[in-house]
Every structure is written in structure tokens, then in C-alpha cells.
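Exercise 7. Predict the structure of Methylmalonate-semialdehyde dehydrogenase (Acylating) from Halopseudomonas pertucinogena.
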Amino acid sequence: MSNNNIPTVKLLINGEFVESKTDQWRDVVNPATQEVLARVPFATQDEINAAVANAKEAFKTWRKTPIGARARIFLKYQQLIRENMKELAAILTAEQGKTLADAEGDVFRGLEVVEHASAVGNLQLGELANNVAGGVDTYTLLQPLGVCAGITPFNFPAMIPLWMFPMAIATGNTFVLKPSEQDPMVTMRLAELALEAGIPPGVLNVIHGGVDAVNAVCDHPDIKAVSFVGSTHVGTHVYNRASQAGKRVQCMMGAKNHAIVMPDANKEQTLNNLVGAAFGAAGQRCMALPVIILVGESRNWLPELARKAQTLKVSAGVEPGTDVGPVISRSALDRINGLIQKGIDEGAELVLDGRNPDVPGYADGNFVGPTILAGVKPGMSVYDTEIFGPVLCVMEADSLDEAIEIINANPNGNGTAIFTRSGGIARRFQEDIDVGQVGINVPIPVPVPLFSFSGSRGSKLGDLGPYGKQVILFYTQTKTITARWFDDDEQAAAVNTTITLK
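Solution. The predicted structure, encoded as C-alpha cells:
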């Protein structure tokens, strides 16, 4: 197919989907077939500036829009997402690779945040102290910042954009979104539905690009806050560069999540949970479970864990019964296979080898099957690196305390879990573990939108997380007002040169 016949991904600027004038383009490739689905532009600096300028202009009126009117837009938006769920999942699977069921889950977890945004009026409340001094009241307003921006990754091209712009816009800000250039199509369909729901021109804008676009977002003086989800390397760059430019920044970054398996755990339930969390979405989740620590007698469960993993079907996400789809790109596949080999070279035991699987009908796909490496220790590349593929590292410990020490010594703090039937063990774990999100018999403890995503340590920069109550504080400025009103006939007070209110 010639480039002339391949559709182009548009920019969204001031309510219009426009063709970029750039001379830099990237192919959007189906990872199961290598079919080129579309071409995405790397927006020019002028186009990025136009998106920000229109967002800044739209803020003047959007910030004055009543909370109820904003909320009703998101009520309509969640309805449109539900009505188009199958289409959104199909687009997502084609460009990202995950199974259709997992793609629907991707959209649904974002939809939950949209629903939360529709109730933002309950969260964006200030405080009032009456009569703090004679006739003086003090109260706070939570006011929007202005133009905010989001930079999102390839692995959740529906959910993570929906973490960002609905909450920012619902609180009265305008938004410039830069989705992953690897799979922007489902994000653009969500943008179309957002306009259909009634988001006014300029309130939501979408640009595309790579490093230059990221830096432009970090540097632009009219962008007040930046939200990022992605790798630690890029997130650290974004945090430092945007913070130095005076912006608020939140960066959710890399991970190396561990699960502790105690010998008293429910064996069948635990093994099923471990397999699903380690290999689902081809391991391309920041909250995936790439490391397990088998404590005591639970180390005897490893052969059965491997047998369960071996039964998972590796194929294209559109094929019925697929458990593990392709990874996003050829370079990702090569990187994962290289790390597996490096793990073997460094002394890990290859319990299950998922490299070069036979996938009928998809010989050109970026496939790697479930892989298990045992005897993994800190210092090995497979342990120290976020593999972001369907590779499970197995460690052993003699006690709960030893297992906790292993996890707390790791620089990342995104998520962790423990499998046990003991309330006492679970309580000690949740108290002593130094990780932001903890699961007890829950392998992927991503909180619902009533709470905020709370990764910690090397997995997060910035003190406020996305969605939930924390993000209201991120997207608003607290203004404190101290007011005194006088009766018309009240006698004037004497001049007071102190700062004390009486």
C-alpha cells in the first residue's frame, strides 16, 4: 500500500481535526501482522503553539462555566464511551495488540474516571471558618490553573488519557494531550466522542510527536501543569525539565512489582492470580507482576505454576481464546528476548521458554510467550531492569521478613502484593512494606477512582497522584480569602498597625 492510501492521524486544535503540515511522520503498525494502519505526524512547533494558544483562550470562558454544566458533559461522555465500547476496543487491539477483552478493560478503567469526573462538584469544595476574629471569616476556593498537559504511554492508550483530561477539564482547566505516537488512534476516537459530548472548542487539544513534542510541553510558558505516565528515564526528564520551567508535575514511572507467596496461601487461587498478573497484556503493564518471592514451602509450587503458564494461548488479540497478544514493536520484542538470554547467561534457571512461539497465521507478529526464570537475584539484569514483557522472575525467601527486605531494597515502589490466609501476616506486610499500592490476595492493586493512584519512591515523582481526591489538588490552586463586612452605621475602628485581627 502506498503512503497516499494510508490514513493519517489528525491533530485536534480548537475543536477541529486538522492535517499536520509536518514533514516527519511515523507508521502506526499492527503488532500482530505488521500492517501499517495509519501515519501519525510529529507536530511542528507552530502547531503545538497553536494548540496551547487556543487552550489558553478557551480557558477564559471555560473556567467560568458552572460546575453542573461541566458535569453534564461528562455524564454524556461516559454514555458515549459505553455505546462505542466494542469499536474502541477493536481500534485499541489493532494498534496495541492486547486481546479484545483486555482492550475493553482498558477502556472501562478509563470510563470509571470519566464517571468520577462527572461528580467533581462533590470534590472541588473549599473550606470555611466563620468568625475567626471579630466579624472576620476565612474561606478557601479551589480554582483551576489554566492550560494543563498530559503525556501518555503506549500500553494503555485509552485508560491513561482518560485518567488525565477528564479530571483536568472537569475542574475548569483546558488541556493539551500528547498520546503515544505508537498507538494514537483509539485516543483520537475518544477525543471525537469528547467533542460529541459537548466539550467546547479549545478545551481539549491533541498533538502528536516524540522527544521534541515532549520538550515543547515541558517548556511552554502557558502550560501550568504536566501529567506523565511512562518510563522512569523519560519521566525523570519530564519532571526535571517541567519543574525547572515552574510547572506542577506528576510523573508515574517504571516499576518492578513483587508478590510474596506464603505457604499458607490458597494454592489454586494464588497460582491462577500469579499467572494472570504476570502474563496478561503480554506483561506490558506498569502494575504487572514480574517478580514473585516464594516463601518456605511455597517454593514447591513452581512446577505447577509453570504448567499453568504453559497452557496460555499466544496469538493475535482478535483471535478467540487468546491470553497473550503481541508486544508493541519489533524493538520491544528484541529487547525482551535479549534480556531473557542475559538472565540465563547471568545464572538464572530457564523454567519456561516463551521465545519464538509458533503462532499460526501470524508469522510476522511480535510474539513472545510466557517465560519463567527461577533463581533470580538482585544484580541480575532481568531483576534490575523493567522488562515490560511476559517474563516472570522467581525468587525465594525463608521468611516473611526476608521477603519484605528484598522488596524494600528495590528502588521502585509502584505496587506489591501478598498471598496468605493469615490476617496477622497481611497486617504486618501492609505496615512494613515501603510501596505505594498494596494488594492482599489481589495481584494488581490498582485503586478505583474514589482513591488515587499512589505509587512511591522510584516509581513516582511529584506528591499528588492521578485521579481521585489528590488530583483535584493537583489541578487546582487553593486561594484563601479573609473577609470582614461592616454595617453601614458601624463606628469606624481606630487605626491598627499590628497584624492581629480582633
